[in-house]
């Protein structure tokens, strides 16, 4: 009896537990939902619900020890089937994953089981699918093996067929033939419920009976809109006769299909004959909107057929033809069908196609870039051009040509350059940013998986695109008249007491003299003498501290109808946090030109220095600091480089014997070269006396001339902006006590411009928007200060920059204002400053608005104690941070043995010319306060000068700015609970990503800086080693990746050098990089191997190894419009190296799930790399002539061709020569065995001594390069150890690192030549090759090659790819070949 009672109680408990579980799944507790909403911010409600559900499922799965856990897992899956509309099932023999999808085909995994369900449980799942009343889209991805999968697919098929709600079906199983899948699932077409069908499987091709069945279903269906098939078989899934039958229902004849609008014939194996059939279908079809023929075998002839069909087709909206070898003729035909000037005769071009994909593997030919130029310049209908992985864009020059052509395009809104290796370098980045200033139609440029993304440049492009999308200045003001810009700025910068204010006053006096009638009192000489007298008198009653400029003084002047504002920037570093904010976008929509006057006093200032002359090093450091400051704060540009004029003051005080001036001029010449592609440093250095108007006149005239030329060069601006500049100048003169206007008053002022008045029939909202956009344009130009969040406009920037900021951001030591204490000022004191600047008259102005404006500019933030913290005023009493000696402490002082440590350094990509300025980090402190100021109700956020720290999710974080000893940022983290991979995820997404975004911000960031990530030595983080002693304890992430790729060593260990108290040490590279970066390395290696495969035309067996996941069309409402950001009309399920993660916060369980998935992908990719390498080795060794482009003589093996050089060292060991070394002229020439199974170094080969003089350097260089290319290929395919290179190239990674990154090793090779300190390009011409080859032939002629090199000439006689080819083999391979009768020995 007791046993039965226990059993009944257990049943009751089970039922209660199950009810509780489903209550959790269906309804998140209000407290959790509210907290999640706060964390997610703007994250869609649907995504947040899925995260809660996923977390709940994870909790359930973790209770596997419970007797009912297995049932709970099944119930969770059944619940999802009964409630979700779109589900994806990933089923393998060892796992079960369930994901839900949004409308953009982005997946959110909600369930994972590391074991499969049993047959009965699967039957319950299948029955649930059959009875579901909510499911509309089902995607089945199987990996079960052929027999098991077919049985289960049949059951799923019956369930789908019986369900009347399912409209979209996708079935993928690479072990099941495409013929079986299509034959099984095409009967769903007859149900008149299916909208989308995708099938992906393996070979063989569709049988004619299957095609007939499919064609019948297509004719009958009235609901199908999207049909896509693909196969992993490189032969494709349909032959020509089957294709004709398959396309017949789309020919618009009797009984044709009228419902299908999206059609994907992917990887179908279509050849030129098949392309002719596709073209015929395009000529007759009038309903198809989306067509894809990617990944087939369409050549030039087939592309011509399709191009002709496009001329007559008026319905097709989107066309995919990439990954087809269409070549130059094919691309020319396509371009001709889409452009007017290229059309033949009376044939008109296609004007209805909007989206064209013509990227991967179409071929590489010289005229390709010219054809792309023609397409973007002359086509006026395409909205999106996808060129991802284009072989035509493998070098920067080709990319720049395309970008220059895009400046003339008026229709494209999206250009996709994903994976294009030529998208790299400062020139490309500058050209893109220039493009965005002149092309106002372009809304999106995709740069993922490009070198520009890797080096941080893509962040700058994204920031500009986001600003354009937000402002939409040209869209709102479109149609209004444009004029030449007529506004300019002059920035005076330099250290304190350089003479900037004196120079500015003298320039304005000179202009005043010019504008007045000539008389002796207005002469420059008289004014100059009078100015000196007044200045000397003022000096008698003043001291150095009272003359110091506060903030920025802004003064206006005009000449020749050009309005000029002079921005006199205070030199003290207290103000640098604000200086960054006013350096303009040189081509902003405000249309302002600008120039910089870098003013340097040759003498030390202050009573303690008397008249002491500065050293040359002091002057040089001053120049470099300000040149870096200007370069870092100016947008990268190739067309509008900032002009800098260097001005030396107090030259009249130099003694006649002083030699400092010519030495300074020489230094400026070297700096001009150093900064030549970033800044335009004036050819003249103006050495003058700032008090003398005569002395400054040449500078004044030069400045005027430059500004006029720059205004002529800049793009036109709206005439309304130009008129408002004049109106505002007049207003400020007449209303000097009203520096700020409420929005209504400013809008009334805008009514003085005719184009901004509310006209009859014009909507007031449109006029208001035009005025708002005009204010933003004037803000970009620097005439006003405005933000849409505030209801006022600062019409006098001088008031805000000087009276407000100049008073608040003043030095504690120089200005005794007791309201400011170590960066903090109370609201009461701050209001006192504002009232004083207004002279008590607020003019209806709300004080809180000004405070919010400063907060918006990241200058300060409010604290709980009713104080305002201004980070730029934080003090470092002992100056330890300045010298990098500060002792750091973790936020908590707990001691645990389980702490894990990681750290990174964010450095400038071009650290010799750009820096993270002194003003950047205080703004970062404010930005991080918004992100981490309060975590779970606790305020752990702490600040000090150049330092911040906080706790988050069980992790302690310290961020330190190195200041002038490095201008970089170190981030150090530790956690006792989180894994290193989780910490890295948090580091990259929650800490580094905001830093990248802030740096790229057009207003708050350093527009000229590209940030790069480095890894800090973990021992430095653990011991919190002071910055000064961890200076060199960092390795750049990109450099580490290149080392691993160069050495093909996935067990690489990074060595740390000794520094200070730190001893030498080492860390595993994979642990340092983390899983995400490690996966990127594998992706890049796979990409390299695929390029090698293409270059030697490997056969079909290899192709099967590289298919990852299917490609399919994403159909929907993809019409482009101005109100919606450009939708991605084509989605890749396989997104290598691309993060689509849009969350603001994620649970640890969710991140760990992603990391586990990544671990599995890494393992599979390592296996794939090994498989690719094994298959590539014989293919490459058998087709080396295709890679090396040898002459006929070498191809016929007149002499051996695999040459390399060695040099002897003091220890008599020989190593392979990998670079040209000055003085190294006597070398040993060696030859490799050319065995088709794998090249290798011949052991104990004697070789020949060879000498090169200066007249034969090019010959040596050419032969050296082709030998290194062979070695590089062997490294890529993992055959270098077997080839005997391990001991002969001890520093393999370092020596071959540049080799792997070179897109064309024989066309653009980098070698250190002579006494040069850097790598430089030495192009190898066709003539150079011929000369080098002839030298080799002559050198080896008459020599006993068998004795010197242990090689003999043979011919391959057996079956296989190498049959009939000639090679030089070593004795071992010769014996083996003769023994199995695959070789014939030849005389030589």
UniProtKB/TrEMBL annotation:
<dbReference type="InterPro" id="IPR027417">
    <property type="entry name" value="P-loop_NTPase"/>
</dbReference>
<dbReference type="InterPro" id="IPR032675">
    <property type="entry name" value="LRR_dom_sf"/>
</dbReference>
<protein>
    <recommendedName>
        <fullName>COR domain-containing protein</fullName>
    </recommendedName>
</protein>
<dbReference type="InterPro" id="IPR032171">
    <property type="entry name" value="COR-A"/>
</dbReference>
<feature type="domain" description="COR">
    <location>
        <begin position="762"/>
        <end position="874"/>
    </location>
</feature>
<dbReference type="Pfam" id="PF16095">
    <property type="entry name" value="COR-A"/>
</dbReference>
<dbReference type="Pfam" id="PF13516">
    <property type="entry name" value="LRR_6"/>
</dbReference>
<keyword id="KW-0732">Signal</keyword>
<dbReference type="InterPro" id="IPR001611">
    <property type="entry name" value="Leu-rich_rpt"/>
</dbReference>
<keyword id="KW-0677">Repeat</keyword>
<feature type="signal peptide">
    <location>
        <begin position="1"/>
        <end position="17"/>
    </location>
</feature>
């Amino acid at each position: 009896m007791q046993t039965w009672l226990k059993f009944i109680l257990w049943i009751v408990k089970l039922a209660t537990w199950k009810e509780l579980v489903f209550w959790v799944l269906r309804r998140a507790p209000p407290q959790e939902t509210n907290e999640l909403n706060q964390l997610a911010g703007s994250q869609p409600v649907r995504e947040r619900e899925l995260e809660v559900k996923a977390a709940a499922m994870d909790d359930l799965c973790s209770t596997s020890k419970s007797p009912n856990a297995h049932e709970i897992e099944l119930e969770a899956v059944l619940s999802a089937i009964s409630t979700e509309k779109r589900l994806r099932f990933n089923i393998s023999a060892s796992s079960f994953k369930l994901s839900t999808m949004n409308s953009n085909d982005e997946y959110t995994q909600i369930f994972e089981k590391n074991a499969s369900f049993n047959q009965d449980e699967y039957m319950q799942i299948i029955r649930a699918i059959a009875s579901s009343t909510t499911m509309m889209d089902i995607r089945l991805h199987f990996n079960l093996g052929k027999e098991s999968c077919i049985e289960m697919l049949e059951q799923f098929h019956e369930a789908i067929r019986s369900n009347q709600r399912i409209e979209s079906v996708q079935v993928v199983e690479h072990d099941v033939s495409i013929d079986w899948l299509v034959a099984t699932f095409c009967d769903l077409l007859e149900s008149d419920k299916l909208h989308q069908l995708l099938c992906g499987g393996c070979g063989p091709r569709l049988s004619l009976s299957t095609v007939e069945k499919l064609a019948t279903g297509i004719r009958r269906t009235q609901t199908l809109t999207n049909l896509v098939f693909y196969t992993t078989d490189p032969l494709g899934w349909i032959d020509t006769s089957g294709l004709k039958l398959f396309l017949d229902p789309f020919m618009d004849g009797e009984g044709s299909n009228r419902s299908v609008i999206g059609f994907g014939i992917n990887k179908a194996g279509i050849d030129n004959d098949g392309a002719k059939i596709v073209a015929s279908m395009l000529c007759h079809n009038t309903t198809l909107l989306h067509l894809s023929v990617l990944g087939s075998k369409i050549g030039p002839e087939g592309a011509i057929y399709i191009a002709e069909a496009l001329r007559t087709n008026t319905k097709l909206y989107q066309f995919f033809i990439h990954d087809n070898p269409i070549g130059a003729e094919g691309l020319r035909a396509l371009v001709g069908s889409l452009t007017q000037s290229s059309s033949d005769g009376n044939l008109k071009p296609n004007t209805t196609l909007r989206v064209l994909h013509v990227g991967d593997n179409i071929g590489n030919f010289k005229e390709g870039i010219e054809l792309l130029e023609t397409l973007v310049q002359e086509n006026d209908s395409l909205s999106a051009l996808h060129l991802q992985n284009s072989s035509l864009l493998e070098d920067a020059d080709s990319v720049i040509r395309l970008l220059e052509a895009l400046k003339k395009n008026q229709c494209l809104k999206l250009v996709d350059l994903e994976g294009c290796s030529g998208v790299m370098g400062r020139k490309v980045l500058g050209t893109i940013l220039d493009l965005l200033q002149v092309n106002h139609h372009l809304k999106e440029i995709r740069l993922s998986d490009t070198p520009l993304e890797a080096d941080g440049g893509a962040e700058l492009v994204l920031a500009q695109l986001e600003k354009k999308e937000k402002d939409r200045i040209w869209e709102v003001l479109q149609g209004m008249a444009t004029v030449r810009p007529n506004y300019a700025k002059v920035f005076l910068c330099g250290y304190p007491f350089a003479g900037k204010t004196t120079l500015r006053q003298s320039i304005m006096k000179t202009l005043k003299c010019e504008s007045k009638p000539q008389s002796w009192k207005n002469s420059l000489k008289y004014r100059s003498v009078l100015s000196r007298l007044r200045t000397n008198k003022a000096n008698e009653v003043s001291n150095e501290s009272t003359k110091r400029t506060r903030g920025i003084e802004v003064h206006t002047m005009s000449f020749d109808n050009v309005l000029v504002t002079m921005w006199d920037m205070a030199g003290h570093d207290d103000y640098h946090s604000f200086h960054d904010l006013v350096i303009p976008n040189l081509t902003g929509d405000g249309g302002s030109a600008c120039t910089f006057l870098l003013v340097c006093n040759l003498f030390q200032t202050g009573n303690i220095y008397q008249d002491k002359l500065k050293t040359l090093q002091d002057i040089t450091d001053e120049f470099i600091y300000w040149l870096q400051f200007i370069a870092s704060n100016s947008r990268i540009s190739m067309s509008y480089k900032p002009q800098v004029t260097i001005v030396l003051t107090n030259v009249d005080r130099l003694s006649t014997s002083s030699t400092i001036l010519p030495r300074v001029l020489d230094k400026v010449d070297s700096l001009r070269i150093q900064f030549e592609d970033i800044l335009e440093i004036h050819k003249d250095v103006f050495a003058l006396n700032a008090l003398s108007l005569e002395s400054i006149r040449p500078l004044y005239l030069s400045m005027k001339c430059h500004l006029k030329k720059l205004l002529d060069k800049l793009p036109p601006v709206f005439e309304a902006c130009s008129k408002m500049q004049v109106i505002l100048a007049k207003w400020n003169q007449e209303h000097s006590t009203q520096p700020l206007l409420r929005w209504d008053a400013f809008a009334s002022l805008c009514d003085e411009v005719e184009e901004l008045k509310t006209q009859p029939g014009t909507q007031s909202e449109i006029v208001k928007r035009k005025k708002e956009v005009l204010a933003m344009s004037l803000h970009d130009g620097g005439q006003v200060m405005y933000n849409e969040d505030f209801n006022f406009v600062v019409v006098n920037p001088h008031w805000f920059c000087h009276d407000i900021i100049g008073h608040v951001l003043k030095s504690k030591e120089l200005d005794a204002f007791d309201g400011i204490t170590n960066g903090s000022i109370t609201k009461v004191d701050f209001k006192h400053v504002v009232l004083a600047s207004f002279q008590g008259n607020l003019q209806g102005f709300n004080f809180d608005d000004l405070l919010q404006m400063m907060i918006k500019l990241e200058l300060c933030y409010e604290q709980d104690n009713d104080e305002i913290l201004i980070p730029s005023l934080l003090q470092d009493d002992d100056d330890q941070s300045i010298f990098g000696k500060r002792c750091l402490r973790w936020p908590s002082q707990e001691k645990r043995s389980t702490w894990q440590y990681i750290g990174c350094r964010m450095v400038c990509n071009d650290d010799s010319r750009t820096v993270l300025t002194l003003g950047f980090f205080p703004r970062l402190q404010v930005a991080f306060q918004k992100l981490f100021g309060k975590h779970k109700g606790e305020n752990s956020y702490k600040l000090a000068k150049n330092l911040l720290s906080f706790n988050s999710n069980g992790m302690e974080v310290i961020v330190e700015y190195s200041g002038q000893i490095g201008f970089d940022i170190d981030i150090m983290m530790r956690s006792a609970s989180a894994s290193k991979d989780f910490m890295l995820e948090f580091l990259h997404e929650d800490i580094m990503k905001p830093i990248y975004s802030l740096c790229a911000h057009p207003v708050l960031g350093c527009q000229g800086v590209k940030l790069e990530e480095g890894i800090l030595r973990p021992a430095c983080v653990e011991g919190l080693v002071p910055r000064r002693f961890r200076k060199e304890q960092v390795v750049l992430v990109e450099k580490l990746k290149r080392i691993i790729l160069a050495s093909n060593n996935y067990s690489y260990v990074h060595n740390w050098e000794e520094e200070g108290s730190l001893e030498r040490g080492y860390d595993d590279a994979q642990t340092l990089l983390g899983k995400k970066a490690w996966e990127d390395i594998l992706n890049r290696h796979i990409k390299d191997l695929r390029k090698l495969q293409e270059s030697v035309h490997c056969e079909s067996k290899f192709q099967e190894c590289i298919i990852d996941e299917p490609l399919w069309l994403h159909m929907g409402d993809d019409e482009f419009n101005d109100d919606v950001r450009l939708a991605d009309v084509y989605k890749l399920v396989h997104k290598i190296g691309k993060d689509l993660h849009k969350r603001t916060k994620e649970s640890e369980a969710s991140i760990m799930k992603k990391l586990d998935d990544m671990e599995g992908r890494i393992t599979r990719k390592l296996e794939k790399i090994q498989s690719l390498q094994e298959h590539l080795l014989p293919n490459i060794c058998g087709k080396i002539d295709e890679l090396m482009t040898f002459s006929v003589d070498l191809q016929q093996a007149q002499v051996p061709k695999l040459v390399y050089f060695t040099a002897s060292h003091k220890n008599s060991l020989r190593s392979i020569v990998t670079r040209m070394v000055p003085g190294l002229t006597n070398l040993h020439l060696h030859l490799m065995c050319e065995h088709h199974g794998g090249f290798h170094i011949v052991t104990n080969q004697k070789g020949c001594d060879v000498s090169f003089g200066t007249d034969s350097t090019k010959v040596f260089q050419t032969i050296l390069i082709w030998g290194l290319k062979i070695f590089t290929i062997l490294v890529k395919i993992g055959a270098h150890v077997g080839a005997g290179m391990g001991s002969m190239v001890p520093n393999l990674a370092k020596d071959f690192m540049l080799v792997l990154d070179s897109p064309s090793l024989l066309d653009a090779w980098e070698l250190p030549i002579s006494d040069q300190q850097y790598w430089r390009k030495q192009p190898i011409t066709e003539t150079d090759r011929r000369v080098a080859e002839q030298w080799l032939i002559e050198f080896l002629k008459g020599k006993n090659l068998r004795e010197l090199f242990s090689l003999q000439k043979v011919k391959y006689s057996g079956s296989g790819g190498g049959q009939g080819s000639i090679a030089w083999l070593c004795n071992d391979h010769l014996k083996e070949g003769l023994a199995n009768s695959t070789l014939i020995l030849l005389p030589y």
